[in-house]
Amino acid sequence: MSFETGRGRSLPVRWLITLGILTLMGMGLLLLSRRPPSPSPTLTEGTLPSSSPTLSAPPALRDLCALEMLPRIHAPYFEGLIPFEQSAIAWFGQVSPTRNYTDIRVGYNARELFIYLAIFDRHLWYDENPTPQTLTQWDAATILLDTSGGDRLSLSSWRFVAQLYSEPSPSRRNVERGSAEGWKPIHVPFNAVPGWRGNALNDDRESDRGWAIGFTIPFSSLGLTSAPPEGTIWRLAVRVHDRDSIEDPSLEETSWPPSASPDDPSCWGFLHFGLPAYHATAVPTGYIRIRRPVRSSPLVPDANVGGTTSNQCPGDEYYIWNEWGNRNDGHAPDFNIQNQSDVADWPCFAKYYVTFPLDAIPRGKTIISATLTLHQFGNAGDPGQARPSWIQVLIASADWDEEAITWNNAPLAYENVGGAWVDPLLEWPGWPGVPRTWDVSYAVAQAYARGEPLRLILYSADSAYHSGKYFVSSDTEDWNTEGRPLLEVWWGESH
After folding, report:
1. Considering just the CA atoms, what is the radius of gyration of the chain in Å?
2. Which end of the chain has the least Cβ crowding within 10 Å, N or C?
3. What gap in Å lies between CA 290 and CA 300, rounded to an integer?
4. Distance between CA atoms of 145 and 156, rounded to whole angstroms?
5. What is the rounded distance in angstroms from the CA atom of residue 73 to the CA atom of residue 87?
6. Is the CB of residue 88 less than 8 Å from the CB of residue 105?
7. CB within 8 Å of 392: residues ≥ 6 apart
8. Beta-bridge partner residues of 158
9. In angstroms, what CA-CA distances link 27 with 146, 189, 378, 428, 465?
């Protein structure tokens, strides 16, 4: 892999991306008209439409959450280079003056595993005279893997550590292998390329934004001849180490999963090779459309967290470190989904949470397929600046409150389940906007089997500037009911 790094720059992706200074995302397409659409049904049940999907036979759903609902990342496989913006996305931590937040991106090809961390951090410090034992006392990251998927340290357990620096440095990397007696040093090839954005490393000015590091771990270094077969499950944990001054000791570490212990693989999450797939064979018998019927209804709560359409890219340093992560936007009429490779622009990043009730689906049925539809009305950037976004769908790990959800308290993702490309709009499309769809069959089948609502998160692993995509929320005015998020589910009888 090749990355470009330098002073005051964020880690680019495999192809070289020139990073500029913090770019404020424009609203792009303006809200030019508000014509009420014709009314449409909101929560209806009927016969299966003739155009419904026909799906082939399913394997039984694999229960991947046997241990306390520990989260998992489904890593997509790629031929050749690993596209940065299509890597699986996950995250952990919080934004504050003394706490770090981290986005995780994961992908793999036949030769190597790619794990990229983008870390929001106000003070960037590295060790001028590092040793393997002191790497984690400064800004650094640890990747923990167990290739057997086991719950105890063994020869299948690996610990890869890399410290922030201005350029790749072997003296700031270390790898250890597990054993019954604990971790032991070992020399195997891997790479960890850092990058950063801010005033300067190792200074006391409070004007840094964060740093990033891309790990590439050859499968040959783990004793494998090639990538694991699709469906293989390993253990994975990520730990981010933080130091905010030269005099004070390192601060509390943050981890994915939050309870991860470096010496106990039973508390690590799961790394599943390949995206989940769902297929069902059943005689179609039912169909339902679920969306909020009127604005005052509590049905289908949704919320935007982070750089929302009304709060994009704020530049005040006090605000972004102290208030940005604690802002609630549970009742905005629209929302933004946004990410990019330049970690300096994290005040522009935004996620979307939405919950659909499934109790109107009769019990004892087989979910055949399900589709989420959102209506896009605009995007960040001036015409010609925006790029397509691979917007990912994830399952939330817990319930949340529309009145109180924020970037900092929103539940983490339990697992990623797929995605869809969303193109930028070249002109104002008129209301209700342009429908964009995602296959959420796997997620609905999982939630239905557990007797729970469908709790989704949408986020992206974008690389380019101006990546924000704007959609209509459940809280839009009643004249725009058709633009509200819509879940369609088809079910049937198994034989």
Report:
1. 23
2. C
3. 8
4. 8
5. 10
6. yes
7. 88, 89, 416, 418, 419, 458, 459, 460, 461
8. 145, 177
9. 44, 45, 8, 12, 13
The CB density around residue 26, as the number of other CB atoms within 10 Å, is: 18
Which residue ranges make up each domain of the chain?
Answer: 43-56+280-493, 72-273
Judge if pTM exceeds 0.85.
Answer: yes
Kind of pairing between the strands at 302-306 and 112-120:
unpaired
Mean pLDDT of the 453-476 span: 97
- Map tokens 């790497």 to a residue: 135
Domain 72-273 top-level CATH class: mainly beta
**Distance, CA of 460 to CA of 90 (rounded, Å):** 10
In sequence order, the 6+-apart residues with CB closer than 8 A to the CB of 186 are 175, 176, 177
The three-state DSSP-derived secondary structure of the chain is CCCCCCCCCCCCCCCCCCCCCCCCCCCCCCCCCCCCCCCCCCEEEECCCCCCCCCCCCCCCCCCCCCCCCCEEEECECCCCCCHHHCEEEEEECCCCCCCEEEEEEEECCCEEEEEEEEECCCCCCCCCCCCCCHHHCCEEEEEEECCCCCCCCCCEEEEEEECCCCCCHHHEEEEECCCCCCEECCCCCEEEEEEECCCCCCCCCCCCEEEEEEEEEHHHHCCCCCCCCCCEEEEEEEEEECCCCCCCCEEEEEECCCCECCEHHHCEEEEECCCCCCCCCEEEEEEEECCCCCCCCCCCEEEEECCCCCCCCCCHHHHHHCHHHCCECCCCEEEEECCCCHHHHHHCEEEEEEECCCCCCCCCEEEEEEEEEEEEEECCCCCCCCCEEEEEEEECCCCCCCCCCCCCCCCEEEEEEEEEECCCCCCCCCCCEEEEEECHHHHHHHHHHCCCEEEEEEECCCCCCCCEEEECCCCCHHHHHHCCEEEEEEEECC
Convert the pLDDT of each residue in 192-207 to its tens digit: 999 999 988 989 888 8
pLDDT digits (tens, 9 = 90+) for 324-382: 999 999 999 999 999 999 999 999 999 999 999 999 999 999 999 999 999 999 999 88
